[in-house]
């Protein structure tokens, strides 16, 4: 059994991050007798200037990318189907909003030291994409944090501590300087990069190649 370090750079409101990680999990399940994954999540804010109240998702996509209502509907249908293939339920609605994710990332950074980062990331994805919850709302974030076993009072401090906000910004800058400009970006053993939600087969091949290089 070989241990492979996997760094996942993502944003909580990125649907392709859900798809990419889901496919990575499927690849790992195919190799579960050979590989143990050591997974670390890292912040990447797609919309760092987004106000806390957020913005209607379809309006945001139209403004940022010029996405038409027809293209948006098609993309939602595609994502919903791809989600089913990895066992994840996307629940897109016309009222769905996109939110600022800085404080969510602050919690994720802290959760790593508590051994709860992976559970929190999964809970945040579910809260936003399946339950359509406001993951910029502090009470919502605290509820999600406690649901995975994190201490509520400490989580409240982390959310409101500017030092944690600066840590998120610093980490994001480091990834930008490393050449990461889009997510998901998944790095194996700190040197092999897969960008985007690639196929299960590509992830399997990468994992096998990395293990072979370990000798």
TrEMBL record:
Gene3D superfamilies in alphabetical order: Glutaredoxin
Domain called DSBA-like thioredoxin: residue spans: 6-208
One protein family per Pfam: DSBA
CDD domains reported in the protein's UniProt record: DsbA_FrnE
Highest taxon listed in the record's lineage: Bacteria
Signal peptide stretch: none
InterPro entries named among the record's database cross-references: DSBA-like_thioredoxin_dom, Thioredoxin-like_sf
UniProt protein name: Disulfide bond formation protein DsbA
Organism encoding this protein: Vibrio panuliri
């Amino acid at each position: 059994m070989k241990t492979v370090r996997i760094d996942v750079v993502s944003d909580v409101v990125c649907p392709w991050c859900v798809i990419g990680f889901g496919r990575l999990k499927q690849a790992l399940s195919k190799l579960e007798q050979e590989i143990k994954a050591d997974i670390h999540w890292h912040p990447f804010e797609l919309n760092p200037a987004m106000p806390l109240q957020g913005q209607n998702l379809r309006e945001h996509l139209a403004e940022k990318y010029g996405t038409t209502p027809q293209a948006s509907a098609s993309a939602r249908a595609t994502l919903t189907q791809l989600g089913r293939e990895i066992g994840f339920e996307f629940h897109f609605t016309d009222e769905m909003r996109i939110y600022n994710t800085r404080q969510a990332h602050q919690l994720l950074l802290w959760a790593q030291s508590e051994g709860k980062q992976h559970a929190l990331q999964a809970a945040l994805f579910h809260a936003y994409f399946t339950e359509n919850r406001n993951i910029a709302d502090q009470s919502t974030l605290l509820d999600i944090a406690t649901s995975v076993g994190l201490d509520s009072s400490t989580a409240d401090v982390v959310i409101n501590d500017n030092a944690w906000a600066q840590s998120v910004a610093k980490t994001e800058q480091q990834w930008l300087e490393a050449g990461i400009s889009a997510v998901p970006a998944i790095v194996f053993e700190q040197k092999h990069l897969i960008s985007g939600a690639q196929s299960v087969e590509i992830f399997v091949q990468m994992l096998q190649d990395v293990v072979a290089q370990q000798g």
